[in-house]
Write a structure and sequence with these properties.
This protein is an all-alpha fold and 139 residues long. The protein is 74% helix and 0% strand. It is built from seven helices and no strands. Helix 2 packs across helix 3. 10% of the residues are buried. This is HTH cro/C1-type domain-containing protein.
Length: 139
């Protein structure tokens, strides 16, 4: 059985064990009450229940917390390992950002992100050109 179908079966079973009707409407209402990201619609919930897709890592974690289960009760060990590796990489990137970038650098980057698309493209091209020139002259 493929992982998506297996996830669907496990999700329906856990919902029923917790006293919830395994329908898209119930899942949408209860999930969105607990998830801090963008609300998920009925269509997406129905796709989860039909075994067409597996939710994102963050949504899987919300489901596991809500249903009070380990992630392994929803998805395969392999997927759980990938989720853990992804979190470790993200933690590492966050640590790098906070330790290597000064407050001024972080503020500058936020300003950059708020520029219109064309201006961001121009700034990006200038930075890449300067990087190439620096790298060529350094060696």
């Amino acid at each position: 059985m493929d992982e998506k179908k297996n996830f669907s079966i496990k999700l329906k079973d856990l919902l029923q064990k917790r006293g919830y009707e395994p329908t898209a409407a119930t899942l949408e209402r209860e999930f969105n009450l607990r998830h801090y990201g963008k609300p998920i619609g009925l269509h997406a919930m129905a796709r989860w229940l039909r075994g067409e897709v597996i939710p994102t890592n963050e949504r899987l974690k919300t489901l596991a917390d809500w249903l009070d289960v380990d992630l392994r009760e929803l998805v395969s060990d392999e997927r759980v390992q990938r989720i853990n590796l992804s979190e470790q990489r993200q933690d590492s990137e966050d640590t790098f950002w906070h330790t290597q970038a000064s407050y001024d650098d972080q503020r500058l980057f936020k300003i950059f992100l708020n520029l219109p698309r064309e201006q961001r493209k121009t700034v990006r091209e200038v930075i890449i050109a300067m990087h190439k020139a620096y790298r060529t002259n350094k060696y």
